Predict the 3D structure of the following.
Amino acid sequence: MELRTDDTLSPYRTFTRAEWAALREDTPMTLTSEEVTRLRSLHDRLDIKEVEEIYLSLSRLLSLYVAATQRLFRAQERFLGTGDMKMPFIIGVAGSVAVGKSTTARVLQALLARWPNVPKVDLITTDGFLFPNAILEREGLMEKKGFPESYDLPALLRFLTDVKAGRHPARAPVYSHLTYDVTPNRWVEVDRPDILIVEGLNVLQTGRLPKDGKAIPFVSDFFDFSVYLDADEVVLKSWYVDRFLTLRGTAFRDPKSYFHRYSSLSDDEAVETASSIWERINFLNLHENILPTRQRADLILKKNESHLVDDVSLRRL
């Protein structure tokens, strides 16, 4: 028998851009055009209209989730008779290289921090939990950088455990995109935030489940809500190549840059190099590790070639 897809069986409810924008209702705009520009990453298209039509509705939805989670936490505390302190609400942001995760994470942080109750909102990226280049080179993993095996997963899980347990301060390593490596002896301290945003390529990934049924924590087990940024593969590749070309004339020119050797490439050489890196590394990571996690997200933002969100899929409760 041929298996046919029935949209009524989907765990998601999908909204057009206009339908999603209407859900903003009276959520106020708290960012200026200048602030939005500063939050935007290289080559991302983000303006006040995009924030108004996409991110304000998401901010309103998250306010409902945070309030409901806090009520549930207090109810469980009464049931258990414990005096635990409040736990932070953790939001995961996942998606491919060049899809705009950093921009989305920063916009959410800025909007959520300006709710009327002024919550403390922290943001970390999982880049800091990559193994240092020296270890990746020793283990033959430099071509797998960004793949699940290139991360110090136990360290990331310990960090999230500390955050959820209210231990303070929890420390996350700092990653330099200039040197393309973890910065030794530098840390970001996360001290009991109300909300923590965790952004990374593989934050929604799980591993093979143990046959003995023993618990194995995954990064996503610590999330209260998760967002997946989606775009067609051909669009992602074009964004990656365009970003590479821009960096060739900017950041790559710094002699300290790990990619300084690419700064003198011609246009054709740069396109060929970027395309090769995409096919050899990012394409594989996308299809083997990142894209399969899309359906684990609570919310999927689907972008078009102009970097604008076309539709929004929200997981049904």
User: Anything to note?
Assistant: The chain has eight helices and nine strands.
